[in-house]
Amino acid sequence: MKFQEGDKIIVTATGERGFVVEWINNKMLTIEVDGTQFPVYADQIDFPYFEEFSKKKTFEQKKHVVREIPRKEKRIEKNVPRDGVHLSFFPILDKDVFDENLFSYYRVYLLNHTDDDLFVHFTILYKDLKDIETKHQITALEDLYLFDLSFDRLNDQPKILLLFSLVKSNPQKATQFQVEFRPKPKQFLKLSESTIEAHNASFNFLLFDNFPSKEFEYQMPLSDKEEPIVDDGTIDLSQLLKAGFKVKKKG
Q1: Same domain, yes or no: 47 and 113
Q2: Does residue 36 contact residue 138 with C-beta atoms inside 8 Å?
Q3: Alpha-carbon distance 2 to 43, whole Å?
Q4: 65 and 92: one domain?
Q5: Best exposed site among 18, 126, 219, 225 by fewest CB in 10 Å?
Q6: Residue 39 pLDDT
Q7: Exposed e or buried b for every residue in 127-156, given b needs 16+ CB within 10 A?
Q8: What is the DSSP secondary-structure string of 83-111?
Q9: 88-96 average pLDDT score
Q10: Strand 17-23 to 8-11 pairing
Q11: Number of structural domains the chain divides into
Q12: Are residues 143 and 230 in the same domain?
């Protein structure tokens, strides 16, 4: 492959510099920029050498100093569709003793494809025993890495709880919104195989289109008596459907 772990890189669209953390698959890899790790396609980054060479040459020809705009003042236009908040799973492959590909784990991200800055209280349980609990702030149109989900642990009845609230309170919006998501082994195996066969990097689950209004404030039940995932793998948001929300699944 063109890039190796630890290679210094530059994001061609923004000029940001970082380094390669690891390959996700043959199309995507994880990079780190200013302490933040996120996935990119390989054709979206390059080695910084050509860019550095070009800068030196331009400087010698112009014979004057061009003031660099501080990073915090730069406005990077992002072409992100406003299609809701999603859980995104990136299947990571490994080799067995026969050099055959097998699914090792999933790199799990939260995608905030809305115009709202959100607080999220994230918890994952295995067989109803808490394993990870964290709190984050995720800005509008940003992605947030949550954790790695081992393929083997899909048999331990994982339960992902996500409690959302708005960074900027809005009296017209709900104070909080909770979603409970339970991955199923057969469902994830099928989705992983179809994702790899289609040469895609990930498969997503839509959690909600827009943060709900105050009159539709709704909290997903935590009781095992109410199953939040139906047989086809979609998240059960029946209460939101009754309230008139548009619900769809992305895969």
Answers
A1: no
A2: no
A3: 10
A4: no
A5: 225
A6: 83
A7: eeeeeeeeeeebeebbbbbbeebebebbee
A8: -EEEEEEEEEEEE-TTS-EEEEEEEEEEE
A9: 85
A10: antiparallel
A11: 2
A12: yes
Kindly state the DSSP code that residue 224 receives in the 8-state scheme: T
The pair of structure tokens assigned to 199 is: 């040469």
Average pLDDT score, the chain: 78
Domain carrying residue 169: 84-242
| CB-CB contact of 3 with 29 (8 Å) | yes
Please give the average per-residue pLDDT across 25-39, as a whole number. Answer: 81
Burial per residue of 87-124, b for 16 or more beta-carbon CB atoms within 10 angstroms, e otherwise: bbbbbbbeeeeeeeeebebbbbbbbbbbebebebebbb
**In a domain? residue 247:** no
Q: Does the global pTM surpass 0.90?
A: no
Q: How confident is the model at residue 207 (pLDDT cuts 50, 70, 90)?
A: very high
Together in a domain, 160 and 195: yes
Residue 54 belongs to domain with CATH number? 2.30.30
Domain-located, residue 169: yes
- Return the bridge partners of 152, or none: none
Picking from 131, 124, 248, 233, the residue whose alpha carbon sits closest to that of residue 184 is: 233
